[in-house]
Amino acid sequence: MAYWQVNKIKYIGPHQSLKSDLGFQYYNPEEIIGGKKMKDWLRFSVAYWHTFDQRLVDPFGDGTAIRPYDKYSDPMDQALAKVDAAFEFYDKLGVNYFAFHDRDLAPEGDTLRETNQNLDKIVDKIVEYQKTTGMKVLWNTSNLFNNPRFVAGAATSPYADIFAYSAAQLKHSLEIGKRVGAENYVFWGGREGYESLWNTDMKREQEHAARFFQMAKDYAKEIGFQAQMLLEPKPKEPTTHQYDFDAATTIAFMKEYNLDQDFKLNLEGNHANLAGHSYQHEIRVARTAGLLGSLDANQGDKLIGWDIDEYPSNLYETVAAMYEVVQEGQIGPHGGLNFDAKPRRSSFEPNDLFYGHIVGMDSFAAGLRVALKMKADHVLEDIINERYNSYNSGIGAQIEAGTVNFTDLEKYSLDKTQAQLRAATHSDHLEQIKDTINHYIIETLS
Ligand code: XLS
Ligand code: NI
Ligand code: NI
């Protein structure tokens, strides 16, 4: 039985008007571009939670979603039907990866033992599908934030029984990651932060979180689960302050607790905006530290300001993100673009899930095309090399080599006139750079 009333989505090339047909305008998976197939640059992943579980609720309204497995009222029957629907969806969309939380797949029982039994039954079915389809798991993770037991956090909960339960839940999630061959394992600390400092022992909570990550890494080693471990920063929401605020904060935490050898970062566009940064900034910070792992592809609405997880459509932002990826040569060692994104509440029909992924995939594919063209033409490289040119010889080279001190620099500078110093600087012509970027976007995509 077909769950989704669409044919396989194909590359149809740029269209001039609103499409009646579903198809990719910029994403051509097998096309070799910049030395690799497009699909290998981008490694798109469907997020199970948003795509198959999300009912399109908002804080003021019930879910509006119409989904093809709604007729199954028994939760386990529905969970099993969702797996069929999911694999048909991956095939029709033409993606090779998906991502999931433990709780996305199957309902909880009253004890962890019962919960694990439900989960294993669904994972059995997923593993069977993987054998026939070759579908891979970009990452899996554990939902340690929805259930009321996590009201005050999981690893950072002030209640030791909750820490213990979280560890036990995560243990099984790692075992499942191994069974499905997940390439990465993500930790998004849903409620790992505080509501108020007045009742919080911040140091103790952060030490507990670090201990939790260390134990997770040790257990993954013990069972031979080789996924790259990733921390996903987010500054706030649901808590007032999340400990993994942004890339820089999370890197400092990783270094303080010696986690930077085993963990990298999974960065999300909407989270970057909530932290007051651009997505590009977060990716640059991670790259600079050698800790770029993977990307959650979505965008926020700057006028709303919540984590609304829109499908990416802003070409300027996807160009900037892919510019960083192209400079890096890849997203991360095992990274991909996971659509941590959902349709708007008013886009409630099943096919809107395809439209959402298509605009997201096309936007990143377009971004990749533009970024590669800019790189081929050395547009920004030349500008940047020129800008730092004074460090390549003379006093600049001595500063970088560490062969001069303050006394030497005083001697060098003491009699320089203001006119000489002004002559040492140059206009950045930033407006011209932006005009050039616009030109590359329009030229490459038309
Ligand atoms: C929520 C997070 C979440 C993680 C996975 O804001 O983005 O979806 O990616 O737990
Ligand atoms: Ni995310
Ligand atoms: Ni998010």
Automatic annotation (TrEMBL):
Reactions catalysed, as given in the entry: alpha-D-xylose = alpha-D-xylulofuranose
Cofactor or coenzyme needed: Mg(2+)
One record GO biological process: D-xylose metabolic process
Taxonomic superkingdom: Bacteria
Active site: 101, 104
Matches recorded under Gene3D superfamilies: Divalent-metal-dependent TIM barrel enzymes
SUPFAM superfamilies registered for this protein in UniProt: Xylose isomerase-like
Enzyme class, spelled out: isomerase
Keyword 4Fe-4S found: no
GO cellular component: cytoplasm
EC numbers on record: 5.3.1.5
Residues that, per the record, bind Mg(2+) 2: 268, 271, 307, 309
Principal subcellular localization: cytoplasm
Cofactor binding note: Binds 2 magnesium ions per subunit.
Compartment(s) of residence: Cytoplasm
InterPro entries in the cross-refs: Xyl_isomerase-like_sf (IPR036237), Xylose_isom_bac (IPR013452), Xylose_isomerase (IPR001998)
UniProtKB keywords: Carbohydrate metabolism, Cytoplasm, Isomerase, Magnesium, Metal-binding, Xylose metabolism
Chain positions recorded as Mg(2+) 1 binding sites: 232, 268, 296, 340
Assembly and oligomerization: Homotetramer.
Family named by the database record: Belongs to the xylose isomerase family.
Protein's name in the database: Xylose isomerase
Species this chain originates from: Bombilactobacillus mellis
